[in-house]
From TrEMBL:
Residues 76-195 form the Phospholipid/glycerol acyltransferase domain. This is 1-acyl-sn-glycerol-3-phosphate acyltransferase. The chain crosses the membrane at residues 12-37. Pfam families: Acyltransferase (PF01553). GO terms for molecular function: acyltransferase activity. It comes from the Bacteria. The keyword Lipid metabolism applies. Keywords: Acyltransferase, Lipid biosynthesis, Lipid metabolism, Membrane, Transferase, Transmembrane, Transmembrane helix. The keyword Acyltransferase applies. Pathway: Lipid metabolism. It comes from Maribacter arenosus.
Length: 245
């Protein structure tokens, strides 16, 4: 019965999701072209709040737990597990004070209203996963960017999303490059739960009635020992991931 109900609710969700992307595309362009970074960033934050609201048609609820007073005057590297593309709007909205930027696959850089524009103009980087040299250059660019502007980079070290909620092994390379080029960054582990359930049936219909949680774990200072930092951040992220039910 739940899956049957999911079909019409998913159609409604996609309708409003698409409207939000189309409406905010020219808004982003106007903000970026006429008013600069801060206006564009505000429009992106509002867009992602709207995208969160769209998932309410699916009965999705959210809780973002951040018991830590994260600084806004230094760069952050947010390291998270990855369960679906629906991880991203809540990170952008709830972490908006820290100006989150993403390492995204190059295919998302064109053809998607609002999303592609923001990835190309908002400070994120696009990597070609088939070209490791290009990917490392772009990640280094992001590290330099957040170091200079005191913003945050979001990286998903699993490399791809978990389809069943079980975390994959973290890959160290991207994080190592970010830390190298943003040495003053505070490293912030983030644990995401239940986002994968939105795609439990595949791309259509979406899963309904899910409660998605985001838990910011204790931040980690860069002590210069990457292996130690990497092991600690992976352990803290995974400590907050609940066994799939």
């Amino acid at each position: 019965m739940q899956k049957i109900l999911a079909y019409p609710l998913t159609v409604i969700y996609f309708l409003f999701f698409g409207i939000a992307l189309v409406v905010f595309h020219p808004i982003q362009w106007i903000c970026f072209t006429l008013f600069g970074y801060n206006a564009h960033k505000a429009s992106v934050s509002l867009l992602n709040l709207c995208l969160i609201r769209c998932t309410h048609f699916l009965g999705t609820t959210y809780k973002f737990n951040n018991p830590h007073r994260l600084p806004t005057d230094r760069p952050l590297i947010i390291v998270s597990n990855h369960q679906s593309m629906n991880d991203i709007p809540p990170i952008i909205w709830f972490m908006r004070a820290h100006h989150p930027k993403f390492v995204s696959k190059i295919e998302l850089g064109k053809g998607i209203p609002s999303v592609s524009y923001n990835l190309r103009h908002g400070g994120s980087v696009l990597i070609n996963r088939k070209d490791s040299k290009q990917a490392l250059v772009q990640i280094a660019k992001l590290g330099k960017y957040i170091e200079k502007h005191k913003r945050s980079a979001v990286i998903f070290p699993e490399g791809t999303r978990s389809r069943d909620g079980h975390p994959k092994r973290f890959q160290p390379t991207g994080l190592k490059v970010l830390i190298k080029h943003a040495p003053s960054a505070l490293i912030v582990p983030l644990s995401i739960n239940n986002s994968w359930k939105l795609l439990r049936y595949g791309k259509f219909p979406y899963g309904i009635g899910n409660h998605i949680t985001f838990d910011v774990q204790e931040p980690i200072e860069n002590n210069g020992n990457f292996d130690e930092v990497f092991a600690l951040v992976e352990a803290r992220v995974k400590s907050g991931i609940h066994p799939p039910q």
